[in-house]
From TrEMBL:
<dbReference type="Pfam" id="PF14559">
    <property type="entry name" value="TPR_19"/>
</dbReference>
<dbReference type="InterPro" id="IPR011990">
    <property type="entry name" value="TPR-like_helical_dom_sf"/>
</dbReference>
<protein>
    <submittedName>
        <fullName>Uncharacterized protein</fullName>
    </submittedName>
</protein>
<feature type="compositionally biased region" description="Polar residues">
    <location>
        <begin position="28"/>
        <end position="39"/>
    </location>
</feature>
<feature type="repeat" description="TPR">
    <location>
        <begin position="122"/>
        <end position="155"/>
    </location>
</feature>
<dbReference type="InterPro" id="IPR050498">
    <property type="entry name" value="Ycf3"/>
</dbReference>
<feature type="compositionally biased region" description="Polar residues">
    <location>
        <begin position="385"/>
        <end position="395"/>
    </location>
</feature>
<feature type="region of interest" description="Disordered">
    <location>
        <begin position="28"/>
        <end position="49"/>
    </location>
</feature>
<keyword id="KW-0802">TPR repeat</keyword>
<dbReference type="InterPro" id="IPR019734">
    <property type="entry name" value="TPR_rpt"/>
</dbReference>
<feature type="region of interest" description="Disordered">
    <location>
        <begin position="367"/>
        <end position="395"/>
    </location>
</feature>
<feature type="repeat" description="TPR">
    <location>
        <begin position="298"/>
        <end position="331"/>
    </location>
</feature>
<keyword id="KW-0677">Repeat</keyword>
Length: 395
């Protein structure tokens, strides 16, 4: 299973970290990092004499990592380790790919080794926190995040990446703790307030979530995240026409990112747009464009799958919903729509399997909500059916 990271957040998240390594794995691939001596040693670990083939493997692996092709990058990075000048870059990118492909245990081993070699920097601690989240070790994840925050308290991405990992793992209580740490250091961060709003919406704390979205609209007025937050708030309020208006206004001002496109497409579908109407064609164009720009966003895949389901394109609907299921197998709304699609397609067995999974997830999620801060209660459909992409758009 390919985990959807912030590479834009694992779709955008990990890319942000990867680009920070460009000074080591960019145009000068043999450059010796500041914490590595010219003799080729990193900490207490000896590094074999670099060779051109290994450096090429590092370049290929790093390029694939930046594109989010984590599984494909792993063999190249494995081939590079121990044979390149920048062993740190090879090891860090490999750990990043393991997190991205769902192998958190392997990532933890590599990152823990980097720690012991003296690389206890904010990037390592941040990625380690994400790996701990994926490995169901919340206490360790929080400890690593706090170390990263102590090193770089004003680095907004540190908190966003770990919070996204938590929400992807459906650990909303931990996500709230992570965002709270971030807001303690960056109280005026529009992105962190947006993130908290999305987390609260998953806990059915819609009134509190709307407060964050309103604040984001003020803090980042005229930016994409401002328009996204305004449209998101309107969706939670049930004011679909206002959501459509806010999204269209943002697009008319040049904010045409995939998140806003997805929200607009979703809002148009909720407005009752049906095949043959201009609004349905607009929603289809928006969602297809969003999916093309960010194919690894499950929310966009779900919305596009729903649109095709409404339009009677059952094979296409199933394809996009199955893609969303592969990326986010614990998301109830995927199975609710898959069950409908398979049933209409005549595959009753697959429909029943989707319904059985949906029932298990709803029960598990209800228990999770009951144990969340504030004793939030789950109304099953609320958080899922009203949620927009849980990612942070560029301002």
């Amino acid at each position: 299973m390919k985990r959807v990271l912030g590479v834009a957040v694992l779709g955008g998240v990990l890319f942000c970290v990867c680009t920070q390594l460009e000074s080591q794995v960019g145009s000068n691939r043999t450059q010796v990092p500041s914490n590595q001596s010219a003799s080729g040693r990193i900490g207490d670990q000896s590094v074999a004499t670099p060779d051109l083939q290994a450096e090429e493997e590092l370049q290929k692996g790093s390029a694939l990592t930046r594109r989010g092709e984590f599984s494909e990058a792993i063999p190249h990075l494995l081939a590079a380790r121990g044979r390149v000048a920048s062993e740190y870059a090879a090891s860090f990118n490999l750990a990043l790919c393991y997190v991205g492909s769902g192998d958190s245990k392997s990532a933890i081993q590599i990152l823990d080794n980097l720690r012991h070699q003296g690389h206890d920097n904010a990037d390592v601690e941040n990625l380690l926190a994400q790996a701990y989240v994926g490995n169901d070790q919340p206490k360790e994840a929080l400890a690593s995040l706090e170390k990263a925050a102590a090193i770089s308290p004003q680095n907004e991405k540190l908190y966003l990446l770990v919070a996204d990992a938590c929400t992807g793992h459906q650990d909303y209580a931990l996500a709230l703790k992570v965002v709270s740490i971030g807001l303690r250091n960056l109280p005026q961060s529009a992105r962190l307030h947006y993130e908290r709003g999305m987390v609260l919406s998953q806990l059915d704390e819609f009134d509190r979530a709307k407060g964050d979205f309103e604040l984001v609209s003020k803090l980042a007025a005229g930016s994409e995240i401002g328009y996204v937050s305004a449209a998101q708030k309107d969706l939670f309020d049930g004011d679909i026409s206002a959501a459509v208006q806010a999204a269209r206004e943002g697009m008319s001002k040049g904010s045409q990112g995939p998140i806003l496109l997805t929200i607009l497409g979703e809002a148009l579908l909720r407005s009752g747009a049906s095949p043959g109407q201009p609004e349905f064609a607009e929603a289809q164009a928006d969602l297809e464009k969003a999916a093309a720009e960010r194919p690894n966003d499950p929310s966009t895949q779900i919305a596009l799958g729903r649109l095709y389901l409404i339009g009677g394109r059952l094979t296409d609907a199933i394809a996009h919903l199955e893609k969303a299921r592969q990326m986010q197998p614990d998301r109830p709304v995927v199975y609710a729509n898959l069950a409908k699609a398979y049933q209409r397609h005549g595959d009753e067995q697959a429909a029943q399997q989707a319904l059985a999974t949906l029932e298990k997830l709803n029960l598990a999620r209800a228990e999770q909500i009951r144990n969340a801060p504030g004793d939030s209660k789950m109304s099953y459909g609320g958080g899922e059916t009203q949620s927009a992409p849980n990612e942070n758009p560029k301002q």
